Amino acid sequence: MAAVLKETTAHDPNALARQGRIDLAAGLRWAARLGLNEGVCNHFSLEIAPDRYLINPQGMHWSEVCASDILLINGKGDVLEGKHPLEPTAFFIHSHIHRANPQAKCILHTHMPYATALTLIAGGRVEWCNQNALRFWGRIAYDDTYNGVALADAEGQRIAGQLNGKDVMFMASHGVTVVGASVAWAFDDLYYLERACMHQVLAVQGAGGKPLRRIPDDMCERVSAQIAGERQQSDLFFDSIKRMLDRESPGWSTL
Question: For residue 9, what pLDDT is reported?
Answer without folding.
Answer: 59
